[in-house]
Amino acid sequence: MPTGGRARKPVAGDGPRLAGDAWLVRVAEAAAADARAPAELLGAHLSMLADAALTGRRPAPRDLAAVSDLGRRAAEQGVDAGRTVDLYLSAAWRLWRELPSGVQARNRDAVHAAAEALLRVIADTVAVLVDGHQTARRQMIRQEESLRRDFIDDLLRGDADVARMVERAEPFGLDLGLPHQVALAAPGAGIPAADSAAIQLERIIVDRFGDRDVLVATKDGQVVVLVPSAKPSTKTRRVSKDVGQVMHEALSRVGAGNPWRVAAGRPYPGVYGVCRSYEEAREALTLGQRLRLDSGVVQARDMLVYRVLGRDQVAIVDLIQATLGPLSQARGGAEPLLETLQTYFESGEVATETARRLHLSVRTVTYRLAKIRALTGQDPGDPAQRFALHAAVLGARLLGWPATALPGSG
Q1: Is the domain of 211 the same as that of 265?
Q2: DSSP labels for 51-95?
Q3: Which residues form the domain of 89?
Q4: Which residue from 53, 105, 145, 333 has the highest number of Cβ atoms inside 10 Å of its Cβ?
Q5: CA Rg, the chain, in Å?
Q6: What is the pTM of this model?
Q7: Is residue 99 within 8 Å of residue 2, measured between CB atoms?
Q8: Which of 329, 305, 334, 308 is nearest to 400 (CA)?
Q9: Is residue 9 assigned to a domain?
């Protein structure tokens, strides 16, 4: 610490002159080591503090603007607000302890005045420092969110430059050379917005699948989850992690209302593999809704038979008209009989289970099955005729019949 003899009256040039003093450099280096932050983030802060202690001068607006810029620079360099404030406070108390002896030799009133001036400077500078840091962080977050949305849109669309997509994926921790699986979740009525649900879901997904090759986002009002392909266990040969089930269980605890509908595509490698898995998940979600499936999670692999049915629309329309068309002649229309037939097939062709699921008596179910046989000439219990009936029922649900007219029937 420098020593001095007689105290002198401060002059206007003290601030700039002190900036080059070796003892201020030592204070800055010690504070930087203590806070684990770059010393250059202090800027002229130490000169302002020393000037306040010697002359009582408060920082000028341009000085505070410079400190605010330093707060922004700290945020851009990845130094969090806590460490930045620690740097400034550590520098302040170290500077007070290292002030030239002439300052500390003054009378008590002068020392108190110097301390008060120092504290006022600290209050002023820390306030603008934090404000500058927070402003920069908000701007960075908005920019990151924009980049994230653009990246996700391009990735799921699958029509971007592959090499560029691989490069853009690196900051998100994604290795697009590996197989990935996409799962979607659509909220039911009364469910909170997808954005808030995605925030809660991300913690669970990262905890279950790790923070590498995992992405949780929202698109078109749905939650999108990208995870690496789960490998089969060497003992059971079964997949140990099911992203769809994890999502459904987690989202079922979010809000009230109708449950979430979740669909998972199959895993594929590469950039285009992600897009393919996403499209499978979208199609599975749509099919599950049309088919009125009770399962909360729909797997794309389980929807392959329905995709086959939907490929030849002319043939499936012809099958529905020829097989189920006569049900429209029943009192009350075809829908009650169609629902009974679908539930009958789903319950393993057991009338008692069908009645339980439909909240009907067994007598009503058997009556409806007899009515179906009479109108269509097809027996649901006959293995030879059951397949055509079942395929027709599935096709009807895919096309929304009888609520919606069949294509080409108008």
Answers
A1: yes
A2: HHHHH-PPPPHHHHHHHHHHHHHHHHTT--HHHHHHHHHHHHHHH
A3: 14-139
A4: 53
A5: 35
A6: 0.59
A7: no
A8: 334
A9: no
